Every structure is written in structure tokens, then in C-alpha cells.
């Protein structure tokens, strides 16, 4: 790999994981640590990375949230496959929560038209996807509309889940880390996600490979709170191995099929 491609890959790694070590990058690219140091120095000069002891950190804030339309177009095929896998976990006449997010929106789009189901959601986008499915009863949490994201936040959104007893919550998050757990960009959305998880007896997390190892601003819950992770990451992914070692079931999807 030439230096231009290698540096572009390093920038992507920093955006997804927030940090990277010289040793790990050298092993990944099969090059010397000195070469990686030169790469990081060059990226820092370009304003694309910030050097730290033993490596580099992202210049992007952990609270930065890309617009949902931008997120929806990123990894769109993987998100569709993950959504398909999530739909196979549905059972007729269940009451489920479908969370806010571009991947959960893909799932909602794929719920069969004739499926008898009750769905609770804090996403106006998810509710819109379900509105044409006449056998699906859709309950919207209420709350304040978060501009751009079209999620419902605030005390009313949180309280909507407090007296509910749902079968499964399908949750979308910004990051999934064995060490830091499920993380999210926004404090308000995080509070609603916690309430949704507390209202459900089974937690299913939908996360494409770019979210594994990513740590965003707010910890929503430890990784041990979830029952199933659906992802397009490969079984040899280090984060996947760590999560699987904690007894969490992982459903793998192939976005290229």
C-alpha cells in the first residue's frame, strides 16, 4: 500500500475508533514504526490527526454526530442486511421497541406488510416507515422533536417507556466497545435509549462494522446488558472476539450477498 492510501486508511481508523497506536498500525500495515510516525506527522500537519504519546487521536470530537441522511447513505448495504437479520427475530403479536437510527430505520422498512406487530418508537422516521403497514400498530413515545434527527427526546419520551413491558428492543448506537459498552453522541437520545432498554426483556443491538471499537461521548449501557449483536463485521474482528467472550450472541451478516 502506498503512503497516500495508508494515510487515508489511518484517518478512517481514527474517525471510527478515536485513536490508534503506532505499534498496532505498523503491525496492521506490515511496515516499520518509523514509517507510521512519518505518516502521523504528515497527517497532523494537514490537520487530520493529533499526535499523542505512542500514536494519534482523532481531531473529531466524540460528540460530533453526522446528519442522519449522511449516516443512512454510509454502509447502506450492510445496514440493509443487518435490518433483514433483525426482522427474522420478530414474532407475530409481539410488542417491540425499534430505536432511533439509520440502521433501525432500515429494519422498519423491511418489516413485512402482513406482520401482526406492535412497535413502540421514539423515531418519527421509523414511525413513517411503519405507517403504511396496516397490521403493525405503531406507538410513538411523544416528547420534543430533535431537529434534523427527527428523534423524540426529553422527559416525556423517557417517561413513555417507564410503564411498558416489551418483548425486545432493537437498539442503534454510535459505538460498540467491549471496554466502554454502547455509546452515543447525544445526551438526550442516550437517556431515551436507556429507558427503552429498561422496558424490554431482550436487547438486540444493530451495528455495522464501522461502529465496532468506536467510542462516542455518552455511555448508554455496558456491553453485558445486550443479548444479541447483529453486525457485518467478521468473526476475527478483535472487538467481536472480545464481545463474544462475554457470552453475548452475535449474528453475522454478509453485506455482499
Secondary structure layout plus pairing:
Elements (H helix, E strand, L loop, with lengths): L2 H15 L1 E3 H8 L3 H13 L4 E3 L2 E3 L10 H6 L2 H12 L7 E4 L3 H9 L6 E5 L2 H7 L5 E5 L3 E3 L4 E3 L1 H5 L6 E7 L2 E3 L3 E4 L2 H12 L1 E7 L11 E4 L6 E4 L6 H7 L4 E4 L5
Parallel strand pairs: 4-5, 4-9, 5-6, 9-12, 12-14, 14-15
Antiparallel strand pairs: 1-3, 2-3, 7-8, 10-11, 11-13
Helix pairs in contact: 2-3, 5-6, 6-7
Description:
With 257 residues, this protein is of the alpha/beta class. The chain has two domains: 3-57, Arc Repressor Mutant, subunit A (Orthogonal Bundle), CATH 1.10.10.10; 68-252, 3-Layer(aba) Sandwich (Rossmann fold). The chain has helices at 3-17, 22-29, 33-45, 68-73, 76-87, 102-110, 124-130, 155-159, 187-198, 238-244; strands spanning 19-21, 50-52, 55-57, 95-98, 117-121, 136-140, 144-146, 151-153, 166-172, 175-177, 181-184, 200-206, 218-221, 228-231, 249-252. The protein has a seven-stranded parallel beta sheet, with helices on both faces. Strands 1-3-2 form a three-stranded antiparallel beta sheet. Strand 7 (144-146) and strand 8 form a beta hairpin. The model has no long low-confidence stretch (mean pLDDT 89).
Which features characterize this protein?
10 helices, Arc Repressor Mutant, subunit A, about 260 residues, 15 strands, three-stranded antiparallel beta sheet, Rossmann fold, alpha/beta, about 35% helix, seven-stranded parallel beta sheet
